[in-house]
Amino acid sequence: MADDTSIFIGASRKPDDSYQRAEHLLLQYGNRHGLVTGATGTGKTVSLQILAEGFSNAGVPVFCADIKGDLSGIAMMGTAQDFLVNRAEQVKLDPYDFQEFPVIFWDLFGEQGHPIRATVSEMGPLLLSRLMNLTEAQEGVMNIAFRLADEEGLLLLDMKDLQALLSNIAERADELGSRYGNVTKPSVGAIQRTLLVLEQQGAAHFFGEPALRIADIMRTTRDGRGAISVLAADKLMMNPRLYATFLLWLMSELFEVLPEVGDPDKPKLVFFFDEAHLLFEDAPKVLIDRVEQVVRLIRSKGVGVYFVTQNPLDVPETVLAQLGNRVQHALRAYTPREQKAVKTAAETFRPNPDFDCATAITQLGTGEALVSTLETKGVPSMVQRTLIRPPSSRLGPITPDERRKLIQASPVAGQYDQVVDRESAFEMLEKKAREAQDAEERAQQAGSGGSRWTIPGFGNDDPAPQPGGRRAPAPRPSNRQTVAEAAIKSVVRSVGSSVGRAIVRGILGSLSRGR
Ligand SMILES: Nc1ncnc2c1ncn2[C@@H]1O[C@H](COP(=O)(O)OP(=O)(O)OP(=O)(O)O)[C@@H](O)[C@H]1O
Ligand SMILES: [Mg+2]
Description:
Residues 390-410, 430-485 are annotated as: Disordered. With 515 residues, the chain is of the alpha/beta class.
C-alpha cells in the first residue's frame, strides 16, 4: 500500500462512517513539520509509532523520546492481535505485515540505552541558564564564564569544569567585574548551588565526553531503512527541564551541523518531540523565539520536527503556524480551557463541508483522528476523519532482556559506554593551583622572612567549599624539587600580570586548599 513517495497513515471515512480512501503523508513534505495532539489514551503514541515506522521504511532516520516506555516495542515484531487485525481490515491495509525496526536505544543516564552526552561548551550559556532556571543576573555571570573560558583557553567539557571555572570566577569577582560588568560572589555562589542540585539529579552523566556524534542518529541500515533512535525518557521526565533542554540542544545542534539541502525528496531526519508542552511552559521569550527560529530554518536542512502534546494550545502560535502535517486525536471539552483548545484545534484545519470540526474532535474514537497533510504545492489537505492504521511492530514495551540484547548488538555499541575525561578546565585550573602551591612552599623553604615569592592572599583566604565534593589534588610527585623549580618560573611569569595573579589567588582559594 505504501509507495516510495508517501507514508500510509490510515483511512478516512465518509459521513456515514463507511470507507472513503487511504490517507498519506507525502515524504517530500515530511520536513514541513507536524503536530500530533490528543487527550490521554486517544492514540498519540501509536500515531507516532506508525509515522516512525513509515519514515524508517522510507529510509529516513528518526529520533524520538519514549516517555512511558511503550514506544520501545517498535524494535520488535508485532503480533496478530484481534483488535489490530480488525483495524487493518477497516483501513484496508492488505497485507498487514509484521516487522521489527532497526532501533538504537539511548539514555541520558546510560541505563536503558547508550549514554548520550554533550559537552558544557556545546550546550552553551543560553540553554544552560534555561536548564538551571537562572535569573537574569546569574545568566549574565554564565555568559561571562563562557567568554572567560574562551579567552583563557579553558575547555568546558563536564560539570566539574564548570564548577572549577565558577570558583575561579568567584575569587576573581572584583577584577572580572571591572572587565566585564557585574560579577558578584553571591550570584556565582547561587549558580554553583544550582549546579550541585543538577548534579544530584543525575545531570552530571549528561555532560562530558564522548559527546554524541550527530552522524550516529542519522544512520541507515544496509537494506535502506532509517534507524530509529529511541531515547528512554521515563526517568528523564522527572527532570522536565533537563528533558526539554536536551531535546532543544539536539535540535539546535542538528541545525548547526547539517548542510542546507533545500527541499529534498524525503527528510534527512525526523525528530519527534513528545510532551512538547515542557519546551514552552514558562519559557522566557528569547527561548521561544529561538525555538521558533530553529523550527523555521531547520526545514531547509531536511529535518522534520513533529511535536506531540495533549493540547494544541501548548504550542505557541508562531510555532504552531509552521506545523504542516497534523494528526488531531480526540479532545475533551468540559472546562472553558478545554473548549478553547477544541475551538483552536478546529480552526487550524482546512474545513471539510461534510462535518463540523469542533464537534468531530470531541467525538473521535481511540486511534481515530482528524488528519490533514500537505499536498501538492505544500497546501494543507482538507481535514478528514481518519482511522489510523495499526503498527507493524509490537504495541507496548519490550522486556529489559530484549532491550539489553538490542543494546549489545547496536551499531554504536562500545562507542559511548566509557566516559573519557581528558584534560579540561578543571584539570588545568587544578594544575595551575598545584604549581602555585609548590612555588609557595619552595619560596618559604628558601627564604627567611621576606621571601620574594609570597603570593598575595595565600594562607589568608577562607577555603572555599569543594565543588561537587571533589577530592583534594593528588599528592605531588616525589621529584618535587624539579617540579617546583619549573613552577616558580611559571608563577613568576604569571604573577607579572594582574590576570595571572588573580588566577593564582583564585585557584589557591578554591582548589588546593579545601580538604
Ligand atoms: N491506530 C491504532 N490502531 C489500533 N489500536 C490503537 C491505535 N491507536 C491507539 N490504539 C489503542 O489505544 C491505546 C492507547 O493509545 P496510545 O498509547 O497511543 O494513547 P496516548 O494518546 O499515547 O496516551 P497517553 O497520553 O496516555 O500517552 C493503545 O494501547 C491501543 O490499544
Ligand atoms: Mg502516549
